[in-house]
Every structure is written in structure tokens, then in C-alpha cells.
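User: Earlier you gave me the apo prediction for this protein. Now I'd like the version with fe (ii) ion bound, so I can compare the two side by side. Same sequence as before, with the ligand SMILES added.
Assistant: Got it. Here's the input I'm using:
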Amino acid sequence: MSHVDLGDLGLDRGGHLLIKQALSTVPVGGVVQVIGRHPALPVHLPAWCRAQGHEVVEVGPGGGRVRRGAAEVGRWAGAERAGGPAPDGLVARAPATWGLAARGALVEAGGPTFDYPLDRREQVWADDAPRLYTQAAAAQWDPATAIPWDAAVDLPAEVEAAVTQVMTYLIENEVAALQVPARFLAKVHPHFREVLQVLAVQVADEARHIEVFTRRALLRGPALGLSTVGGQASLKTLVDEPDFALASFLLSVMGEGTFVSLLKFIADHAPDPVTAAVARLSGQDEARHVAFGLAHLRREVDHDPALRGRLAAAVERRHSALQHTAGLNAEVHDALVLLAAGAWTPEAIGRGHDRVVALVGEMDQGRRHRLKMLGFTEGEAAALSSLHTRNFM
Ligand SMILES: [Fe+2]
Ligand SMILES: [Fe+2]
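And here is the structure of the complex with fe (ii) ion:
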């Protein structure tokens, strides 16, 4: 017979843990001898045993004998293992009753039913998700120290105004890029933990982009630039998209992918080190956002080739909805020309204009490349890329 000596320890100070541990070493029906000197032991032991479903065979001043009951086993009889902790423990569809439980936990039966519409592996998962999360967590930068805020920024007024206009435009795009993943974050079943983590860091990245672009815009003056109807109309079609696959396609594959080119262009032609740094660091984060969007959509398209038709329809629908709007605001376009020109001579402005035309071509090439990675043909990719919003995001 197994036995446990509690010494002076009472059940009111954790003595039950030792009894529980001793009972776990015997089979159901097995008996454990409990010895102890605590004066309340003869009262507390039977009470605890009753509550736990064990039987007291004998009890007295120095302890007693306890038979392990079956009730405790019964409580967990209907429990279910919520997959396995590693990604190879993922299930195809996560049950609503697993709820918030850690992946791999033993979930007691009879719990609440949660509402997670994104509960299928093929809807959200990417094999790259764990790696992308680790990489994203390691690549977080501190806006206070990563940007040379104290560098000399003394630009001619019209160049400073151009930077402010570009930053103002970037900020509203970043807000959309923050809110789109944030909307879906709470709809993803927690079984797909790494996907939640990737999206959460993506949201944090966008929060940082909003911060640094705002701070750069206000570095030399108190006023922000213009926000246009065309720009907001374009972003509204993105923010309103209710389908996760379509929203991440429009946002990450089409929009953020295009922004990677734009931010690189701004970093390359920045008139000051602060503008260069905010564009460069944000662009690095964007490349990760694109990588996750592409990775999970590739997986979903492989699993469900009909999705390709829905992706194409989403681009066409957005194009029709926006065809009567201006797209990129003229001030942003002109600001980019001026930044790329670097001077106020006809030759420089002409060169700046050519560089913006080349940028738009580069953006188009990038979109076509990503569309082909999703299985679109050369011709389909070219057609869809040309329908992408002129607002870039
Ligand atoms: Fe961003
Ligand atoms: Fe982003």
C-alpha cells in the first residue's frame, strides 16, 4: 500500500496536493495510507475526499486510509486533446469547443462554444507562419532609437512640403493596413496560434509605421498634407472587404507588395536621412507582410483552385467601383517627381518624372510576379495587375 506523510502540514495549506500525488500512483480502487499530525486532519480529510470522489476507508487522529475513486477519472473521460503543440499537430478544422485552449491541451468536455469563422487550416495556415513570426519578433525596431531624429533636416520649403504630402498619404494607407488584419485577427481560431502571432506583429508593425510617418511629417512644421476622396475611396474598398482570402489578397499581394516598391523608391530618393530611415525600415516590415499573404494564399489556391477566379473577380470588382475616382492624388504624384528630381531645373524634373514612370512599371512587374506565384497565367497576371488601384495600396 502506498503511503504519504504530511507531517504538520494541513489540507488548508496544500496538504491535498501530496495526497493527490500519492493517489495518482495507485490504480482506481487502490488504497493510500495518509499519515499526519495536523489537528484538523480527521475533519478535512473526509471532506476533501468526498469532494474529489475518493472513499475514506478509515480515519482517525493520526490520519487514515483513502481509496482512489473513479469519479475523478470520469470527469476527464470525455476530454479531448486539442491537436498537438507543434505545427504537425494541426487539425484540418478546429472544433469550436476547443476555444481558447492551448494547442495540445487536454480540453474538458462541456465547455463553451466559441465563434471562430476562420477555423479551417486551408483558410489561414502557411507552413512559413512559425518562421515568419520568429523573424518578425526579432526584427522589431524601436522608433525612438532606430531613426536619426536629430539629424539635420533643413530642406527648401517646397521639398519639405513634398515630404509632408507623401507622409500624409502613407499614414492613411498604413491605417488601412493596420485595420484589415486587426479585423480578422479575432476571427482566426486560436488553434492556428502562429497565424494569430504573425497578424498581431503585423498590426504592431503598422502602428509603428503610422508613428514614424506622422513624426516625420511634423518634424519641421505643424501642418499635415492633403487627404483626397480618391485615396479614401480606394482604401474603403479594402477596409470593407469581408472575406479573409480576398482581403489579404488585395492588401498583401497587391497593395503591400506595391508599397514595397514605393517605400524603396522613397528611401532611395529621400532628401534627408530621417525620411530615408522611416521608408527603409517600414519597407522591410512590408516585405514580411507580403510573404505571409502570399504563403497562405498559395496554400489555399493549391487546395481550392476555384479561389483563383474569386481573387480575379475581387480585383475587377474593386476596379469597377473605383473607375470614376482619381486614384493616386496628383499632389502625391508630383511630390514623388520632385523627390526623385532633387532639383528645380527642367532637366531634373524631367528625370524625376521618368523615375516615377519607371517606378510604376516596377510596381506592375512585381504584381505580375506575385500573381504568377498564385498560379495565374502571364496574360491573366498582366490584365489583373493593370486593374490594380492607381492609389497603389
Ligand atoms: Fe506598413
Ligand atoms: Fe503592411
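For your comparison, keep in mind: The chain has a mean pLDDT of 95.
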